[in-house]
Structure formats: structure tokens, C-alpha cells
Amino acid sequence: MATLDNYREIIKDILKSHAKNTDPDIECQLIFDTENDHYQLLEVGWQGLNRIYACYIHLDIKQEKIWIQQNMTEADLGQELVNRGIPASDIVLGLQPPYKRPYTQYSVA
């Protein structure tokens, strides 16, 4: 349980570090669902007449592994997690098709 709590805190810290908004009309939202272990970084708002709604980062914890479900940033989230002490074997690139996962340094599932 301590590992799971640690993973949750690391994920929250990483998402907070990426939550930088420079446009006052666009709100940066952090979603921390610790009951179901879903974590997201969203942008919501308006840019002129265009609606902005985007999920930039989505991480889940499933079966005690961190799944990177979405990464629309230039950051290497897997490496950030490893740098914070999470073993690569506990990280799954859910945004990659299952047939590609064995060719990464991370877990296949």
C-alpha cells in the first residue's frame, strides 16, 4: 500500500509541474481521482471563437503499475517517473499499441 500511495504522490507532483497556463482565458485543470486512480491534466476555455478542451496528460494506476494513457506534451513522462524512483517495470505505455510495448524499456502490461 505504501508503494501505491507513493505512486499517487509522484503522479500528482509531475502533473502539477506541467500545469502551467499563460492564457487567462484558458483554465488548466488537474484531475486527481485517487479512488479509481485516474489522473489528468486538461485545458478548458476559449481562444477567440474557438472552444479549447484538451487532455494533455492522462495517467492511470492499474494493477500497481502506472499507465501512460496520453501525453500531448514534449516531456518524456516515462523518464520523469523513472527519475522519481519508479522502476521501468512498473510503467506501461498505454498510448502505444500492445504489439509495440515489448520494444520499449517499459512493461508490456
Structure description:
By secondary structure, the chain is α+β, with helices and mostly antiparallel strands. The chain is 22% helix and 37% strand. A five-stranded mixed beta sheet has the order 1-2-3-4-5, with helices on one face. Strand 3 and strand 4 form a beta hairpin. The radius of gyration is 15 Å and the shape is globular. The relative contact order is 0.16. The mean pLDDT is 95.
Offer a quick outline of the entry.
The protein has 109 residues and is an alpha+beta fold.
Q: Estimate the helix proportion, in percent.
A: 10-25%
Number of contiguous helices: 2
SSE pattern? HEEEEHE
Distance between the termini: 20 Å
Which ranges are low-confidence, i.e. pLDDT below 50, for 5 or more consecutive residues? none
> Helices and strands: which structural class?
alpha+beta
Pfam families: XisI (PF08869)
Organism: Lyngbya confervoides BDU141951
InterPro entries: XisI, XisI-like_sf
Protein name: XisI protein
